[in-house]
Amino acid sequence: MQFEDTAIAGVKLVRLQPFTDERGFFARGWCRKEFEAHGLSGEVAQTNISFNRSKHTLRGFHHQLAPHQEDKFLRCTRGAVHDVVIDLRPQSPTFKKHISVALTGANYAMLLVPKGCANAFLTMEDDTEVTYLVSQFYAPGAERGIRWNDPSFGISWPVEPKVISAKDSNWPDFAEEPELMPIPHALATS
């Protein structure tokens, strides 16, 4: 596995190192030892799969409050996504900055989103699937989010989302203290 730094500390783009022959290739897609050798958490609590029927479906921005913050390690296994990460760590030199990357079933690129960052993706093809490993168990009461078009961040999406959940479209404006952000009504009642 090759770990590449991004413009946000701790956010890593991870590429496979395939061993190829006439059959195709073999590559390691996850290795706790390699993560720990790079100073990254090797903890995995669960694996999530997000299947999206329609192109231009948006999911996010999501993050968890302490002590339930989670590292996420994402890979698009089918289709393509435009993935965006926002740094929400007030002590970070890149606080409130964002990056975007293309994750596709064909490029095999993976993205590590560390604790304290929010993540969202927009599907660029029909029938897109994203698999991700997370370091903590989901805690519904600790979930927070940021609206995909919150002006605090000036994110330029490649296209306007066509499919988005009520929860994701109704997150409140960003607050520098996420503990104070209310849970949207759609989330509080689900």
What does this structure look like?
There is one protein chain. With 190 residues, the protein is mainly beta. The chain has a single domain, classed as Sandwich (Jelly Rolls). Helices cover 7% and strands 39% of the residues. The chain has three helices and 14 strands. The strands form three sheets. Strands 1-2-10-7-12-5 form a six-stranded antiparallel sheet, with no helix packed on it. Strands 6, 8, 9, 11, 13 and 14 form a six-stranded mixed sheet that branches. The chain has a two-stranded antiparallel sheet with strand order 3-4. The longest helix has 6 residues. Belongs to the dTDP-4-dehydrorhamnose 3,5-epimerase family. This is dTDP-4-dehydrorhamnose 3,5-epimerase. It catalyses: dTDP-4-dehydro-6-deoxy-alpha-D-glucose = dTDP-4-dehydro-beta-L-rhamnose. Pathway: Carbohydrate biosynthesis; dTDP-L-rhamnose biosynthesis.
Keywords:
190 residues, mainly beta, Jelly Rolls, six-stranded antiparallel beta sheet, six-stranded mixed beta sheet, 3 helices, globular, disordered C terminus
Secondary-structure topology with pairs:
Layout: E1 2-5, E2 12-15, E3 19-21, E4 24-26, H1 32-37, E5 46-52, E6 57-64, E7 72-78, E8 80-87, E9 98-104, E10 110-113, E11 117-123, E12 128-134, E13 143-145, E14 163-164, H2 166-169, H3 185-188
Parallel strand pairs: 6-14
Antiparallel strand pairs: 1-2, 2-10, 3-4, 5-12, 6-11, 6-13, 7-10, 7-12, 8-9, 8-11
